[in-house]
């Protein structure tokens, strides 16, 4: 079944701080195909920031827009797409991605995630001081679902280059 999707988009999933955008950009560059960040596309479509959408319309509306944007984006075949950490948790979005894309989960432990997100402030789900606790809770609820991805790349404490090599080896 993985072969059928060979020419479909490559989707990176994982929690905030897993490196989806950083690794996605490098992967796309290496494969000479475009890179798209779904969060960025949502902001372009909505005409405001993700924080604004959460604050003004709530998370449910954000997920609805996210689904529509991803549905549109995955119509392209050769493209790497970094999805927001909650996208794969939305049943309809997950179903779409599992059917039409090659999904790759960047599996990080909480320490690695914390290291990478500590200097960012634009994530509405992490806007409190107990980031470790929030991330640990998200790991508990989300990792069993992320495990449904086609491929799992363990990238705890790994260098970006190591992760990239691992991804390229599974795509060959
Ligand atoms: C979210 C992750 C964010 C963004 C939104 C919600 C989540 O994307 O979509 O803040 O539910 O995990 P990143 O994973 O790119 O930070």
From TrEMBL:
Positions annotated to bind Mg(2+): 21
Encoding gene (name): aroB
Span within the parent record: 3 to 174 of 547
Subcellular location: Cytoplasm
Amino-acid positions noted as binding ATP in the UniProt annotation, renumbered to this chain: 17-22, 123
Organism encoding this protein: Commensalibacter papalotli (ex Botero et al. 2024)
High-level lineage: Bacteria, Pseudomonadati, Pseudomonadota, Alphaproteobacteria, Acetobacterales
Subunit structure: Monomer.
Positions with a binding annotation for substrate: 39, 63, 85, 142
Descriptive protein name: Multifunctional fusion protein
Known role: Catalyzes the specific phosphorylation of the 3-hydroxyl group of shikimic acid using ATP as a cosubstrate.
Family label: Belongs to the shikimate kinase family. Belongs to the sugar phosphate cyclases superfamily. Dehydroquinate synthase family.
């Amino acid at each position: 079944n993985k072969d059928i999707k060979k020419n479909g988009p490559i989707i990176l999933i994982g929690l905030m701080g897993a490196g989806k955008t950083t690794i996605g950009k490098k992967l796309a560059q290496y494969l000479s195909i475009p890179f798209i960040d779904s969060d960025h596309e949502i902001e372009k479509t909505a005409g405001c920031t993700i924080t604004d959408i959460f604050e003004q319309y709530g998370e449910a509306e954000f997920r609805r827009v996210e689904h529509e944007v991803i549905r549109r984006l995955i119509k392209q075949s050769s493209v790497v797409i970094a999805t927001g950490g909650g996208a794969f948790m939305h049943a309809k979005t997950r179903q779409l991605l599992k059917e039409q894309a090659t999904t790759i989960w960047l599996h990080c432990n909480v320490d690695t995630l914390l290291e990478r997100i500590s200097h960012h402030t634009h994530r509405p789900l992490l806007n409190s001081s107990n980031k470790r606790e929030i991330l640990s809770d998200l790991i508990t609820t989300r990792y069993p679902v992320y495990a449904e991805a086609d491929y799992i790349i363990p990238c705890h404490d790994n260098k970006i280059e190591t992760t990239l090599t691992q991804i390229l080896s599974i795509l060959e």
